[in-house]
Sequence to fold (361 residues):
Amino acid sequence: MSLTTPDSRITPQADALDLTHAKSLCLLRLSAIGDVCHAVAMVQAIQRRYPDLKITWILGKIEYQLLKHLPGVEFVIFDKSQGWRSYLNLKRALKGQKFDVLLHMQIALRATIASLAISAKLRIGFDRFRAKEGQWLVTNHRIEPQVTPHVLDGFMGFAQAVGVTELTPSWNIPVLTADTEFAKALIPNGSPVLVICAAASKAERNWLPERYAAVADHAVKKGYRVILCGGPTALERVLADNIQGAAQSELENQVGKTTLLQLLAVLKQATIVLAPDTGPAHMAVTQGTPVIGLYAHSNPGRTGPYTCLSSAVSVYQQVITEQKQGDIPWGVRAKGEHLMELISVNSVICALDLLLDKQAS
Fold:
């Protein structure tokens, strides 16, 4: 499965490093699902520029389940659930390995500590303004500063720093035939389907179940099947049950019934995906499926579905200007447990109808 986006938002860097003679590169990006989807585009941009470069990626065990078939990449799993033992296990897994380059792409204290187990001559991190949680202490080179980047653009800054000039994001995340067949059995080719991935990692970023239900009912009236998808957590199951209970039409509930790769294949088969700020929205982007993202706490210009920012339904700007005075930092989050209530059913239905009309034309 591969997808190339129509344009790039990155300007090539004049004084980038050249890895022509480098043999190995280590990438440190442990989580989360949306972020590793962004990172795949960067990794594959580097692979196109340096096809003989050996790439080792250190990432979380859940994220590994999505990317484990990625071509040309060796994975080392960092299991944070093991506590302090996770660092010892990482050191043991990397024993004797020396890399020419480390791309330190996660601003978190656990990533800073984990990086100490990685032996690399050149250690590239974010620019000084963004290199927080001690990252600047364990790196010796920085990517170029960026003013208002999307997270994906921030990651592409690492590819830019090592001499990649073709920075248009594209994705190729392999899926096994069995997973594709599962998805096609659920959603035959050409079948009009709205997939709703309703749950974010934090409950406050979820939209109201009765409002999801109202949008689902609207889609059904327009001739679309509606399938609820998501992970197996109690929060996701309860939210799906509540959406079904509030809907007047019949919805299909697949929450907790798919692996990550099966979900990826289902998102590829979908006509449109509706989701809040959550990993499956970015998974859908990698498959070329239009996404309607719902945003209140984070800036969709920074964390929204990369190819579908114009379809985002957001109250973020309204909320953040009420909460902050003066210049507002690009990545600052709005705070509040009920912000998603400011997103109206009508605004989401309007975004859905625009996409449906566009696809019908």
In short: The chain has two domains: 2-172, 177-360.
